[in-house]
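STRUCTURE:
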């Protein structure tokens, strides 16, 4: 569950920048949103690999 908490924390940390970009037009916040989303993508891929490895280990 620690990995799930990482995902939640990352998404929540981006909330302010999403608001600044979409509602206030702050371009720098858009850059931070893009970086955060890339970090989320990387984290999601790491979790996917971890889950697959755990599944493969259990099946053998």
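SEQUENCE:
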């Amino acid at each position: 569950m620690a990995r799930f908490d990482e995902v939640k924390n990352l998404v929540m940390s981006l909330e302010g920048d999403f608001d600044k970009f979409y509602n206030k037009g702050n371009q720098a916040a858009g850059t931070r949103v893009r970086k955060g989303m890339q970090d989320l993508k990387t984290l999601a891929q790491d979790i996917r690999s971890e889950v697959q490895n755990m599944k493969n280990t259990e099946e053998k």
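REMARK: The CA atoms of residues 16 and 29 lie 8 Å apart.
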